[in-house]
UniProtKB/TrEMBL annotation:
GO molecular function term, any single one: ATP binding
EC number: 6.1.1.20
One Pfam assignment: FDX-ACB
GO biological process, alphabetically ordered: translation
Family in the record: Belongs to the class-II aminoacyl-tRNA synthetase family.
Domain of life, per lineage: Eukaryota
Primary gene name: Fars2_0
Name of this protein: phenylalanine--tRNA ligase
Ligase as UniProt keyword: yes
UniProt keyword annotations, A-Z: Aminoacyl-tRNA synthetase, ATP-binding, Ligase, Mitochondrion, Nucleotide-binding, Protein biosynthesis, Transit peptide
Principal localisation: mitochondrion
Record domain FDX-ACB: where: 3-95
Length: 96
């Protein structure tokens, strides 16, 4: 059953490192860090820069706790940890 508590939605975008990147790696990383606080991760947009040919992904992460209302401050800490881990572990270049 869905939680009756409201979701908090945050987006994250970054430049992809190379052909070795897989969006499943990002999904796994986000769920590992966010755990049960993450209800859904969706690839929202894919953009290729016309001059540099670099590719950017934008993901929407929906946070929701099943038993209480989350604060933006709580979610911000988790979201920041996801950003830092994506840079460190996936080699992306943040656009945040």
């Amino acid at each position: 059953p869905l939680s009756r508590y409201p979701p908090l939605i945050n987006d994250i975008s970054f430049w992809l490192p190379s052909e070795t990147y897989s969006k499943n790696d990002f999904y796994d990383l986000a769920r590992t860090i966010g755990g049960d606080l993450i209800e859904k991760v969706v690839l929202l947009d894919e953009f290729t820069h016309p001059k540099t040919k670099k590719v950017s992904h934008c993901y929407r992460i929906i946070y929701r706790h099943p038993e209480r209302t989350l604060t933006q401050d709580e979610v911000h800490r988790v979201h920041q940890a996801i950003e830092e881990s994506a840079v460190r572990e996936l080699g992306v270049e943040g656009r945040f």
